[in-house]
UniProtKB/TrEMBL annotation:
<dbReference type="GO" id="GO:0016712">
    <property type="term" value="F:oxidoreductase activity, acting on paired donors, with incorporation or reduction of molecular oxygen, reduced flavin or flavoprotein as one donor, and incorporation of one atom of oxygen"/>
</dbReference>
<dbReference type="GO" id="GO:0005506">
    <property type="term" value="F:iron ion binding"/>
</dbReference>
<keyword id="KW-0479">Metal-binding</keyword>
<dbReference type="InterPro" id="IPR017972">
    <property type="entry name" value="Cyt_P450_CS"/>
</dbReference>
<keyword id="KW-0349">Heme</keyword>
<dbReference type="GO" id="GO:0016020">
    <property type="term" value="C:membrane"/>
</dbReference>
<feature type="signal peptide">
    <location>
        <begin position="1"/>
        <end position="26"/>
    </location>
</feature>
<dbReference type="GO" id="GO:0020037">
    <property type="term" value="F:heme binding"/>
</dbReference>
<keyword id="KW-0472">Membrane</keyword>
<comment type="similarity">
    <text>Belongs to the cytochrome P450 family.</text>
</comment>
<keyword id="KW-0812">Transmembrane</keyword>
<keyword id="KW-0560">Oxidoreductase</keyword>
<feature type="binding site" description="axial binding residue">
    <location>
        <position position="420"/>
    </location>
    <ligand>
        <name>heme</name>
    </ligand>
</feature>
<dbReference type="InterPro" id="IPR036396">
    <property type="entry name" value="Cyt_P450_sf"/>
</dbReference>
<dbReference type="Pfam" id="PF00067">
    <property type="entry name" value="p450"/>
</dbReference>
<keyword id="KW-0732">Signal</keyword>
<keyword id="KW-0408">Iron</keyword>
Amino acid sequence: MNFFVALLLLLLPISFLLLKRSRTSGRLPPGSLGIPLVGQSLGLLWAMRANTAERWLEGRVKKYGPISKLSLFGKPTVFMYGQAANKLIFGGDGSSISNQQTQSLRMILGDRCLLELSGEDHKRVRGALVSFLKPESLKMYVSKMEEEVRSHLEMHWEGNQQVTVLPLMKKLTFNIICSLLFGIDRGERRDQYVHHFQEMIEGMWSIPVNLPFTLFNNSLKASAKVQRMLKELLHEKRLQLQKGAPSHQDLISCLLSIRGEGNEDSLSEDEIIHNVMLIMAAGYDTSSVLITFLVRLLANNPTVYEAVLKEQDEIAKSKSSGQFLTWEDLSKMKYTWKVAQETLRFYPPIFGGFRKTIKDIEFGGYIIPKGWQIFWVAAMTHMDSNIFHEPEKFDPARFENQAAIPPYCYVPFGGGYRICPGYEFAKIETLITMHHLVTQFHWKLCCTDHFRRDPMPVPTEGLPIQLSPRNHPFQD
């Protein structure tokens, strides 16, 4: 009898768990997880490269509704979009959902970067990054950033009749990163960083199969090389700080200098390296893509181009020859930034992102189990006619009154307490670059108007343009 009682006591909780799991499974979002490990990853990646990702996801919405399950990059995943989904992703306190990227991205960038942290760790690391990237700190770096822009245009644009915009913008943004964030001068060392870094980012959105000659394997090897180089750089910066170098001469020096009571606010070496790599990746792609699509837009929209040119010419006329831009000059570029915001609405550099459930959560009438990924997509909310009037129309005026845009509906830089800490940095380098481009050059497109996602939006052939100085007409 005692045996049967003990057996009953053992089976009751097991039966309860099985019953609970059965009920939870019955309330999972509709959809299929597909083939193990691969799932729908290849379908999404192919759609992104063919620039049909929104259509691919719209097909899922028509079939399953605004929330559905699938498998991406080796993990069971729930896809969702819209204001309520964005609020769930960006507006929580971190108790139900944690920030987590794909396995491939996590292994390449490291597990101590901001995209992977939650709670107090996220707050501490984010606070350290913001101490350098906040507007009050960035004001002193406007002229240094402009030096990089002027040098770049002189070296790669002036005197050329044709240039290809995207690779040049990537070169510019990486040089700005090296200068302001790392304190690395032009030369062989920068070139080595660029080479290994480009190899590293190519596999961040790949299937995490670590076999020889795969894209993922090559990216892991490049990541290891970048991390070794950054460790050497950290050692050099420590020595410079010990000799009295200013703590805010660059981001790495700033992070090394942070000390709290009992060193509670200091960052580990891994945290510095992983977050420097994250900022490298974010700053390299997002700003270069934004500037490239602004060049593309201004070539196709004469009315917007003339308005931007008028604003920038007025600022240029207020400066004496060779005089640098100031923080006050940037604050006058209001229309130019509205054009940039509308460009980000149309072509958000970050197509989407991932989160991880810390516990079972209920959303939209379904249960998302603990440990599953959530895949959110910015572009579909940006093009929702229930949020933005005539979303297919390019209209910078919609940002005249930003308070009129409902919360969690415009998310090119994320939202809530997880909004990108590099937002102001990207804004400054975009405005400085566009000021010099429109005041120094005319341009025409030399390619079709198509683009693909890889996973960032990439214009056809990198956007080659015919170039002419402002004071000379085009030579046909």
